[in-house]
Amino acid sequence: MNGGSLGLRTGSYGLLQNINGAIAGGGISKSLSNVRKSSTKMLSVIREKERPLPNAWYRYMGCRKFSMLLLIAFALLVFALGSFVVNKDSTSPNVLQRIGTLGIVPYVNGGHHEASQILGEKDKKKDENRFQIPAFKGASVLPFRHPCVNFTFPPPPPPTRRRLGPRPCPVCYLPVDQAIASMPSSSSASPVLHNLTYVLNENPIKSEPHGDSDFGGYPSLKQRNDSFEIKKSMAVHCGFIKGSKPGHGTGFDFDESDLAELQQFHDIIVASAIFGNYDVIQQPQNISEEAKKNIPFYMFVDEETEAFMKNRSILSSSKRVGLWRIVVIHNVPYSDARRNGKVPKLLLHRIFPNVRYSIWIDGKLQLVVDPYQVLERFLWRQNANFAISRHYRRFDVFVEAEANKAAGKYDNSSIDEQVDFYKKEGLTPYSEAKLPITSDVPEGCVLIKEHIPITNLFTCLWFNEVDRFTSRDQLSFAIVRDKIMTKVDWSINMFLDCERRNFVIQSYHRDLLEQMPPPVPAVVRRPPALPNTRGKTPGKRIPRRGRDRRSGSSRHRKAAASNRDRNFF
Length: 569
Description:
Blueprint: H1 2-9, H2 16-24, H3 28-50, H4 55-61, H5 64-89, E1 96-98, H6 114-128, E2 171-173, H7 176-181, E3 195-198, H8 221-226, E4 233-236, H9 256-262, E5 266-274, H10 289-294, E6 297-302, H11 303-311, E7 320-321, E8 324-329, H12 337-346, H13 348-351, E9 355-361, E10 365-367, H14 371-380, E11 386-390, H15 397-406, H16 412-424, E12 442-450, H17 453-468, H18 473-485, E13 493-495, H19 497-503, E14 504-506, H20 510-515, H21 546-568
Parallel strand pairs: 3-4, 5-6, 5-9, 6-8, 11-13
Antiparallel strand pairs: 1-2, 7-8, 9-12, 10-14, 11-12
Pfam families: TOD1_MUCI70 (PF04765)
Keywords: Membrane, Transmembrane, Transmembrane helix
Transmembrane segments: 66-86
């Protein structure tokens, strides 16, 4: 039995009958020893065959020094490959990025923005396709690959982070010389509309029971509707209805010396306004010498603001305050200072008939990036002719109207009347169906514009809505844009609000600044005075007695507490 079991287990190493013969012949021990030897030999041969690597390899692998050499060689290989990839994809060292505190849409206020769910992927695809060179119609083809082609936003903050409110985000700007080189040599084509003129009427008559003003000419509802029918040649209401030319007997009048200057040709201007002494002039920063030499900065003020500036010796006979050239407005058309501010904001093309590009910033803003860089980033690089930032939180007109009412921005019944009128005209709440339109509500404190017929028509009709209804231009923006876009192939670059906050810094209005308490002066720490040792024997102290000692220590404790309080503040 045992022999049979042994034979079955080792049948591959020898035949069972051979083993049985050896037992019968009396040579069992010799045969068994031979079997053991042969089986051991065969097992060793099989084990040698099963080894995939030679013994020398195992010997080296067991060596600690050899393992370290392998790791070092692998690390060097990874480093070399990484350096190659970085050098291949790196951008130009001349790229300028102005980095702000990160509060990037779609994570506005620390929470996921509702609009970002609709717009996030769309913006991502837009950014990926943005830099297919050449990028500009009518522009000189740049002799270099665009340095900002690989620029991306950093990751958003985690959702558990504290809500921070709107903040600037990084923007990739070209150096000033390259931005200047990218300026188109000719004007963009204006779709359909080629010739735009303006209605003049010395005796405008109000024929309908709605808003409007003498300055705007009281266009009828039919005239309003006809102005949205885009044709090759058009004449529309666009303010300055009286007089021979804007600023001369029209209301919103200029001095003769200013009027002559405003007629001059400029490639680019920057403009702003302060009415009702409502804001404090903010001086632009980081402006290149080329821009200071070639780009005029105009600040429009009314007579009230002018008087305040003269009383404070801010304004002299040179009519200059820093970079700003002050232009005084006489015979303002409205009693509301904010509505007067809409005239230069939306009708710059009427005030400056010979300008190619303009950047408008509200009076409370400070420009901190060169105008050439701003235009390159938001117009020329995008192949756009009008750019405005979208609101950082709201993107629906109906929601914006309710927010205006809650904040007391305007009379509630007037806001309701305007929104109801737009509802009847077909305005609907913003939804994904409007894509690629990213918002119906702009943050309208910055306008970047090329002065061509279609953009001039847009701002004329936008102004007419502000003149007819409330002065809250955020409410009328979308209806004018959408009506024009249904007629012609034209669009507006609505960029992120955090990008706008990168190139302008917002200040408070004057009334809020005057209510703020003055800053606490810094505490100057002075070194303790050296003790006066004249007439005293060194090393000798006069001991205090009783009450004097106690009162002295009390005074010392009070003084020390007072010093600690001052250091805290």
